[in-house]
């Protein structure tokens, strides 16, 4: 089965652009509650699986042994925007490990945070690896590497850190990964299906009901994400705004190329979606619609206007376009 | 018929994202030489029809009467990036009309040009309407309004300027417009089909072979675009890079939501394409492929690597992904 229409953009009463995609809602058993498009479509979760990549950090005992508390766990799951709060926390975490920016392998990235970007640009500086949206995940990898007594090239696919990530990834998705790609931050990103990713999110959503080590680790990561929504992304970002709008009851995470996941502990439900063309504007609208459909997000909350129902303004402040859910999707 | 696969993005040997779209190649008669997807799909050309919106400026005699030479005609057809060269020329043009920034209706926009953006950000200024990528088009509208003795609200759909634009638009596309939307710059943007837009581009491509006023105007606009590729967009931008790569023999123009057109005077051919989801990365790859297919662009030119065949690098400088033409498109 193919990707189905999910989100439309209208202008002047005419359909201007259309986004197709796949989405799966999974229950506690990992079974499909509802799906659109092809549940078996193979995708790269990209940053939407950072909480899975952080499982070995906690499950191995590395987090406890090396003083990684909830705010650092939130950063390990984050695609942060390089604001001062993010950079300062990552810098301190690296310092506590006796490490520095040069030990990261994620590459430099201009901060998305306006004030931080302005500071870098206007001082004539260059952005550094700590500004990279994945620097928390990478510092988590360094923490695990230290705990395992493994070498410095933690981003290589055959490194013990990535071997542990792969094992956890395949176990929580319930599938052998059909392959991996190298992510924007140079870490391996293991492929799975949309169903596999939704099943993994259901594993996280039900973690508090189990007492095994991996489930305890998963529950701590979900709690960290919902306790520190501003660390998972940043002010003005969809993950932060959506988690705040749901009062910490749901964890959500986006990934590059328009992947979005949600973890609903109260319902024991996991969601995963991928927009075929990779457009964030569509994955944000689609996850907003699914969270409303599941009763997790109040349709009257201002963020819903921002990501789904509100008009799109032009540079002169006129309402010129609108988003609509495609017929048959999440309505 | 539906949109067809055009451009794929691959990572780690797996297809990660896919862009569908429509494309039409038209000959001198306005007939279809080749098409993909639905030639009758209704689209908003957005900024890809700026050369059509500039026809009345020249055809009316306004350009000659008010000293609008080739560089200003190029700016009238431009989606410039607010670099100093663009802002200075628009400012002077407005000054020659005895007008200023407040007479524009396009709204302010942060320059895309890095140096100009840095200057605005680091001075703590706000961007102004002259920085708006459409400020040249709007100054052209003001010039026509002056020549017609019409009022200041030149962007309103019933204003004589927009009435003249609509008439020219419908005549060169060969279709009554099914409607209009308000563009990012607040000007009306008339809808047409992909075939209609390609037919209009073929009209421009064959303009030099005719002696009527509109054809002479079209030929002057094509010559202005190809003579000043850096004014039509700016350094590093696809329109500028592609026109330079073809040595001024072909005019190309992009529009928001992934529209791209090309005018090939030597072949008497026009091209129009629209990527369904609105992604520029796909419309740039698709127009590059079609220009190569038609023998207008050397497949060995460095820009081809940049927009189509070259690897996609991550933040650490590793080649991590690649674009591919979808089977059956332009290959």
CATH topology tier name of chain A? Beta-lactamase
N-to-C CA distance of chain A: 20 Å
Oligomer: homodimer
Portion of residues in beta strands of chain A equals 15-25%
Largest sheet of chain A: 8 strands, antiparallel
Helix share bin of chain A: 25-40%
DSSP summary: helix tally of chain A: 14
Protein name (chains A, B): Asparaginase
InterPro entries (chains A, B): Asparaginase_II, Beta-lactam/transpept-like
For this entry, give a set of tags.
homodimer, 331 residues, alpha+beta, Beta-lactamase, 8-stranded antiparallel β-sheet, two-stranded antiparallel sheet, 14 helices, Beta-lactam/transpept-like (chains A, B), Asparaginase_II (chains A, B)
Task: Describe the secondary-structure layout.
The structure is a homodimer.
Chain A: E1 4-11, E2 14-26, E3 32-36, E4 42-43, H1 50-53, H2 55-59, H3 62-65, H4 70-76, H5 84-96, H6 114-122, H7 135-148, H8 160-173, E5 180-182, E6 188-190, E7 192-193, H9 194-205, H10 213-227, H11 229-232, H12 238-245, E8 251-255, E9 259-264, E10 269-275, H13 280-293, H14 302-309, E11 311-313, E12 319-325
Antiparallel strand pairs in A: 1-2, 1-12, 2-3, 2-10, 4-7, 5-6, 8-9, 9-10, 11-12
Helix pairs in contact in A: 4-7, 4-10, 8-9
């Amino acid at each position: 089965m193919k990707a189905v229409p999910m989100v439309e953009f209208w202008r002047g009463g005419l359909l201007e652009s259309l986004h197709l995609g796949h989405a799966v809602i999974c229950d506690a058993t990992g079974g499909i509650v509802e799906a659109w498009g092809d549940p078996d479509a193979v995708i790269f979760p990209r940053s939407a699986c950072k909480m899975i990549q952080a499982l070995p950090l906690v499950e191995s005992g590395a987090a406890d042994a090396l003083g990684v508390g909830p705010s650092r766990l939130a950063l390990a799951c984050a695609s942060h925007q390089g604001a001062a709060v993010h950079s300062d926390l990552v810098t301190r975490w690296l310092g506590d490990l006796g490490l520095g920016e040069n030990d990261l392998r994620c590459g430099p990235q201009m901060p998305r945070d306006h004030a931080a970007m302005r500071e870098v640009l206007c001082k004539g500086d260059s952005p550094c690896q700590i500004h990279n949206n994945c620097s928390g995940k990478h510092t988590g990898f360094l923490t695990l590497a230290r705990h395992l007594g493994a070498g410095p090239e933690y981003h290589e696919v055959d490194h013990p850190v990535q071997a542990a990530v792969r094992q956890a990834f395949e176990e929580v998705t319930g599938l052998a990964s059909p392959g991996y790609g190298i992510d924007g931050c140079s870490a391996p990103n293991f492929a799975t299906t949309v169903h596999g990713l939704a099943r993994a999110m259901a594993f996280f959503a039900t973690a508090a009901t189990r007492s095994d080590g991996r489930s305890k680790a998963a529950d701590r990561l979900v709690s960290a994400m919902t306790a520190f929504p501003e660390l998972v992304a940043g002010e003005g970002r969809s993950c932060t705004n959506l988690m705040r709008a749901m009062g910490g009851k749901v964890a959500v995470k986006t990934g590059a190329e328009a992947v979005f996941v949600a973890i609903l502990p109260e319902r024991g439900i996991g969601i995963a979606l991928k927009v075929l063309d990779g457009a964030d504007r569509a994955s944000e609208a689609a996850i907003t619609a699914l969270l409303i459909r599941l009763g997790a997000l109040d349709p009257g909350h201002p963020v819903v206007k921002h990501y789904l129902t509100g008009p799109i303004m032009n540079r002169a402040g006129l309402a010129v376009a609108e988003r609509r859910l495609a017929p048959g999707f999440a309505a």
